[in-house]
Amino acid sequence: MDSFGIIVEFNKRTMSDNSSIKANTAVHNRISCNYESLHKEIFNPEEQARIRQCVNLCLKTLRTSSKFKIALDYGCGSGNLTKHFLESGLRVAAVDVSIKFLKMVRNRFAERQDLILLNTSGGRLEYIKDKSIDLCACYSVLHHVPDYLALIKEFGRVTKTGGIIYLDHERCSSFWHKNDVYKNFLLLCSKKSGFSFARLRKYLKPHNYVNVIMRTFDKKYQPEGDIHVWEDDHIEWEEIESLLRKSGFEIVIKSDYLSYNNYPPEIYNKYKNECCDYTALIARKL
To answer: 115 - beta bridge partners?
Structure first.
């Protein structure tokens, strides 16, 4: 398979000895078929339209001279960003720790010749050449990576001059200090939703009780292997911005937004410009 000329050496995958990465790989292999139904906060028209706007902005601000632009979708999952990139005319290197996710992406885009798949051991890009990627993207993945700052540094290494790093769908800084407006938004949504059979169904799923039991032994247990999702351990956007600037990037845009998670539309539309819970960031290499 054509590797777009970005691969240094990828003869054999070396499995990470990091226990959290091993656990993350196992759980995502297990839930891959149900991933999209489990994450309606991602796979809904509102969020997909916002992602499309971000991708368009990435392309608008891209300044590389490449004839054929290459996007690296790190932690591609079921192909969320990959789909948007392919539709935008980019060649895509889709990377994931999960073999089952990669098989899903290959089957979903079976006819595409502008897509390559790479199985990573987690947080490593040593097989990617320096300055070979036009657009490095990471959506809802950083909180799974033990040393996410090291990964971002790697993004900086492989990004071409004029290229873009796009990070998205990680908790914004203000989320950890929930203000009254955001609390009121959640309260109104809860009251409006009221009783429903959909809400009742969660009490009928055995894995929810397993999660409760697991948390009695480990307060930071997360069923999908999330790591940096706690008040005392979360994605630090100031550190990310500082690292990017030191690596020769300028911040094009940093946007905090309120994600849509099956909220009553009238309440969401009223509050979406008043509070936020996630951040998207686009940076360009100078």
So the answer is: 92
Distance CA 204, CA 198 (A): 10
In the numeric block, which tokens belong to residue 200? 């009742």
Residue 142 phi, psi (nearest 5): -50, -35
Buried b or exposed e, range 26-52, using 16+ CB within 10 angstroms: ebbeebbeebeeebebbeeebbeebbe
Condensed to tens digits (0 to 9), the pLDDT of residues 100-150 reads 999 999 999 999 999 999 998 777 798 999 999 999 999 999 999 999 999
Predicted confidence at residue 170, as pLDDT, reads 98
Tokens encoding 131: 């300055």
How far are the Cα atoms of 22, 97, 245 from residue 160, in angstroms, in the given order? 31, 24, 15
Point out which residues pair with 284 in neighbouring strands: 164, 250
Q: What is the pLDDT of residues 13-49, one digit of tens each?
A: 444 557 788 888 888 999 999 999 999 999 999 999 9
Output b/e per residue, 246-285; b: 16+ Cβ within 10 A.
ebebeebeebbbbbbeebeeebbeebbeebbbbbbbbbbb
Q: How far is CA 82 from CA 22, 36, 91, 119, 268, in A?
A: 24, 14, 9, 15, 28
CA distance linking residue 164 with residue 161, whole number of Å? 9
Task: Sort 119 into a burial class: Cβ within 10 Å, 0-12 / 13-18 / 19+.
Answer: middle
